[in-house]
UniProtKB/TrEMBL annotation:
Record protein name field: DNA-binding response regulator
Organism of derivation: Paenibacillus segetis
Source taxonomy: Bacteria, Bacillati, Bacillota, Bacilli, Bacillales
Swiss-Prot/TrEMBL keywords: DNA-binding, Phosphoprotein, Transcription, Transcription regulation
Gene3D superfamilies per record: 3.40.50.2300
SUPFAM superfamilies found in the cross-reference section: C-terminal effector domain of the bipartite response regulators (SSF46894), CheY-like (SSF52172)
Record-annotated Response regulatory domain positions: 5-121
Any matching Pfam family: GerE
Length: 214
């Protein structure tokens, strides 16, 4: 029987080690590598081509949502399960909107974690009933991104809103639970998509085109 190749990504050594120990006991799972941030996760995916990535969300250097976006763009066959200790909907929504196959809370029982990996490996998704209803609510309540002809993602629009309100990169990072480096990446993506050079110009263009309100 061919084993399911799993890459583990978490910035906490203890969690990485315990996941490694627990999942290694499953006969059909093979842990191909460990990574401590999003950048290491991308390198690990290129090196090992895992079937499944168990991806932490809040990490230094590059967070799990940004890493998921890049992995899914470059290697869409790799399936990603977000591992989170937060119940907040926005992180999971951001990850799912960038192609993650589901999420599991870190407090999950090891048996359920292994079962979740198998579900995703066979083409399933992992979203709890509670999260599904939160997602529907948040989609219904989310202000429609009007005239988003520049192809900005929901997360980029979120960063753009904060940018336009005059927040510094450090503050945006804290509010959105991202690393400062990830915020800089989002901002450079925004500038390039809007074809602008600075935040004032970006804010003006976004307001003029109706992406954000005046």
């Amino acid at each position: 029987m061919e084993k399911i190749k799993v890459l583990l990504v978490d910035d906490q050594e203890l969690i990485l080690e315990s996941l490694h120990i627990v999942l290694s006991m499953e006969e059909d799972l093979e842990i191909v590598g460990l990574a401590k941030n999003g950048e290491e996760a991308i390198k690990g995916c290129e090196r090992w081509i895992p079937d499944i990535v168990l991806m932490d969300i809040n990490m230094p250097v590059m967070d799990g949502v940004a890493a998921t976006t890049l992995i899914k763009e470059r290697m869409p066959v790799i399936k990603i399960i977000m591992l989170t200790s937060y119940k907040e909907v926005e992180y999971v929504l951001a990850a799912l909107s960038h192609g993650a196959e589901g999420y599991l809370l870190k407090a999950i029982h090891p048996r359920d974690l292994a079962a979740g990996i198998r579900v995703v490996h066979t083409g399933g998704t992992l979203i709890s009933q509670e999260m599904a209803s939160k997602m529907i609510k948040s989609m219904n309540n989310a202000p429609a991104a009007k005239n988003n002809e520049y192809g900005l993602t929901a997360r980029e629009i979120e960063v753009l809103h904060k940018l336009a309100s005059g927040m510094r990169n450090q503050d945006i990072a804290e509010v959105l639970y991202l690393s400062e480096g990830t915020v800089k990446n989002y901002i450079s993506n925004i500038y390039s998509k809007l074809n602008v050079k600075g935040r004032r110009e970006a804010a003006r263009k976004a307001r003029d085109s109706g992406i954000i309100d005046h």
